[in-house]
From TrEMBL:
<protein>
    <submittedName>
        <fullName>Fatty acid hydroxylase</fullName>
    </submittedName>
</protein>
<feature type="binding site" description="axial binding residue">
    <location>
        <position position="416"/>
    </location>
    <ligand>
        <name>heme</name>
    </ligand>
</feature>
<comment type="similarity">
    <text>In the N-terminal section; belongs to the cytochrome P450 family.</text>
</comment>
Length: 472
């Protein structure tokens, strides 16, 4: 027996659009999850229907690459205005996805990412220096981590320096990228007709896109005029043929992928660093434990650079990062669609259990997987699912999690290609700042407020930062 998928009452023309807060859609989805539970559907303007799944059991079934493929939902369609058929926003059937995937997978492997450590140290040092000199003033970690992740991905992938630590204002390119992603997110829930009007900052949208593409084209032109020995991702994309098709990536495809690295590689990682800082400051006992580990494994902070080998020994640090991404997956949702009409089973997901409802999803039906919500599913994570407890990710427990339970990097063929890169960068930065500094909120009563562009970040979180006493 097939159960209908519940839907909140719709209003004429708008459907359920008015239920989604355009500034922080996540909060609307949390509220709807409380009201409707494991699954429901929404109808948007123009009659487009979206199914939303919240429970781990349903998410696990939708994470099966033999039954579901990535869908390009309303938001990613907007991001395609800039990134086109680059890796992240391509339809799986677009040939450029396959070509770029095959060329870039080895470049983003854990092994090859180790060769990028030098670049990561370079930019991390710039952050440390700024915080050392500036820490008595107010530090905006979300901004400084954005400088860091942006500068790092640009340096490591295309040997380009944005030098954003050297200006008080965010460099124009970063500002444009942030605006573009914020706009893409809110445009997704807005009727097409309004998108062409010069409202809500639409005016600069097209111009920003043009500028950013031009900046990427300029970087490529520059590289062609001044070839280097450096085997960064740009030279790889310029110089390698796809083993399957024998084709080079076109200049246009390279531009889209460079912009893709910048889009996909900065917000997610900087958000993760900011959330990790938040959770550690809110949980002093966890911070103390991390500090003890860092002091033991990294030794005294005497100006020697932290090595990758040392980072590899910091297990609690990894648990902190995993737990941060469980509670605050900076990419809060992802979209899939069934390859054929198919049935998914609610409750505990067992088709034989008569208590579980069966739902039909049609071929091509857009489904939003709410990672933020499913990674707090009490069935998997227990009664304390909402608390920050890195210990739950240690001692073999992480490896024993049910399939698809922890998936802040997505899943399957379209999972994050930048995971080893983000991981190594975050290990270095978190180890560096918590070893070196005593960090506190400027407002000791600060509680998390979320802001959302394409991804989520803590809003209005400000820090004071002091060097730890030398004896530590
Ligand atoms: Mn990343 C895909 C999360 C860092 C480049 N990334 C994804 C997806 C998630 C994700 C989730 C899957 C989206 C979907 O199914 O629609 N990514 C993250 C997180 C971090 C992150 C949480 C950091 C923390 N990502 C990075 C970095 C880079 C990067 C760093 C690049 C340098 N990500 C990508 C690309 C894809 C992707 C490219 C698309 C891969 C594909 O579809 O083939």
């Amino acid at each position: 027996e097939i159960s209908p998928i519940p839907q909140p009452p719709a209003v004429p023309f708008l459907g359920n659009t008015n239920l989604i807060d355009t500034h922080v859609p996540l909060h609307s989805f949390e509220l709807l999850a409380q009201q409707y539970g494991e699954i429901y559907k929404l109808v948007f303007i123009g009659g487009r229907t979206t199914v939303i799944v919240n429970s781990h059991a349903l998410v696990r079934q939708c994470s099966d690459d033999t039954r579901f493929v990535k869908t390009i939902g309303a938001t990613l369609k907007q991001v395609r205005n800039l990134a086109g058929d680059g890796l992240f926003t391509a339809y799986g059937v677009e040939p450029n996805w396959g070509i770029a995937h095959r060329l870039l997978m080895p470049a983003f492997s854990t092994l090859n990412v180790r060769t990028m450590y030098e670049g990561m140290l370079d930019i991390c040092d710039q952050l440390l220096l700024k915080w050392e000199r500036f820490g008595s003033e107010t530090i905006d970690p979300a901004e400084d981590f954005t400088r860091l992740t942006f500068d790092t991905i640009a340096l490591c992938s295309m040997s380009h320096r944005f030098n954003s630590f050297y200006s008080m204002e965010m460099p124009k390119f970063i500002q444009q990228m942030t605006d573009f992603l914020t706009q893409s997110n809110s445009r997704a829930y807005r009727p097409g007709i309004l998108q062409s009007l010069p409202l809500f900052g639409n005016g600069s949208y097209e111009e920003d896109i043009k500028d950013m593409k031009e900046a990427a084209r300029e970087i490529i032109r520059n590289r062609r005029e001044h070839p280097t020995e450096k085997r960064d991702l740009l030279s790889l994309m310029l110089g390698s043929k796809d083993p399957v098709t024998g084709e080079f990536l076109s200049e246009d495809a390279i531009i889209k992928n460079l912009l893709t690295f910048l889009i996909a590689g900065h917000e997610t990682t900087s958000g993760m660093l900011t959330f990790a800082t938040y959770f550690l400051l809110k949980n002093p006992d966890k911070l103390r434990k991390l500090r003890e580990e860092l002091d033991e494994k990294l030794g005294p902070d005497d100006g020697e650079e932290i090595s990758l080998e040392q980072l590899g020994e910091c297990e609690y640090l990894v648990a902190v990062m995993r737990e941060t991404l469980r509670l605050s997956p900076t990419a809060t949702a992802r979209g899939v669609e069934p390859i054929e009409d198919t049935i998914i089973v609610g409750g505990d997901g067992d088709p034989a259990n008569p208590a579980n409802k069966h739902f039909m999803v049609k071929k091509g039906q857009g489904i939003i997987i709410q990672e933020y919500i499913q990674m707090r599913d009490h069935r998997i994570w227990g009664e304390d699912a909402d608390s920050f407890r890195p210990e739950r990710m240690m001692g073999g427990a992480f490896e024993k999690l049910p399939p698809a339970a922890w998936q802040p990097f997505g899943f399957g063929a379209r999972a994050c290609i930048g995971r080893p890169f983000a991981w190594q960068e975050a290990q270095l930065v978190l180890a560096s700042i918590f070893r070196r500094f005593d960090i506190s909120f400027t407002d000791p009563s600060y509680n998390l407020v979320i802001k959302q562009a394409l991804t989520i970040k803590p809003k209005d979180m400000h820090l004071h930062v002091k060097l730890r006493p030398a004896s530590a």
